[in-house]
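Methods — Computational structure assignment.
A single polypeptide chain was analysed. Its primary sequence is given first, followed by the predicted tertiary structure written as structure tokens.
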Amino acid sequence: MNAVVSPSWLAERMSSNADNIVLLLAAMGRPRESYTVIPGSKLADIETEFSDTSDRRPHTAPEDVAAIFAQAGVSEETTVVVYDRHGIMVAPRIWWLARQAGIDNVKVLDGGLPAWTAAGFATEEISREQGLEWTTAEAAQLNTQPRDLFVGMDEVESALEAGRPVCDARSAGRFAGTEPEPREGVASGHMPGAVNIPFTSLLDDTQQLRSAEALAERFGEHNQDEELIMSCGSGVTACVLALAATEAGFTNLKVYDGSWSEWAHPNNNKPIEP
């Protein structure tokens, strides 16, 4: 699918402006101090605009995510490029939300800001006060057909009972229950029948995605046309798995939005293996 692009690809298109780039810096909350960005960036915060803050589950997808992208200036004529300040972690979540909104022309910058600066391309410093706000901008025209790329807890349970694959992006320690969960009241362990693919195992030492061949090996026991459900702690790094699987040629992918923070909540009384 070529959802991942290189710094040189982005720099060339930014200099020509031929692709009408909308550049989104994916973040988990507003930066607390000044920070370095690629010039022309807009902030895409999964804690505020790109999340349903009324939902008790963290980072839940907004109901009308297409309207949020439109407010950020995304139209049918733009190319959206999303990047992280640190490698690849949050950007795939914004990429997945864009696809959920029916936006096809969306890319993730491989290696994020570190890869961009390592290639020698320009950056700028932004103060917290200055920010990268865009919510007052005039909304673009975005007429897309939303997709159904998320699944709920009941669908995940049905998939596990039927022996269909659910991939967990958390660390091996959290999956095995030997490391505590970061959220209070959430048990350690994993869903019975889930497969552990830590999202960090899909990245190389430079925090870029491994080759398509290497990624295919990580998902090698599955057929490329079968449905894969991706899960993690709160639906963020599950999207790293979805991005990697896409690059490996898989097309039938879903993300469990509630992920482990919902499944392991004591009120839900779901089965957990250590």
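Note: The mean pLDDT is 93.
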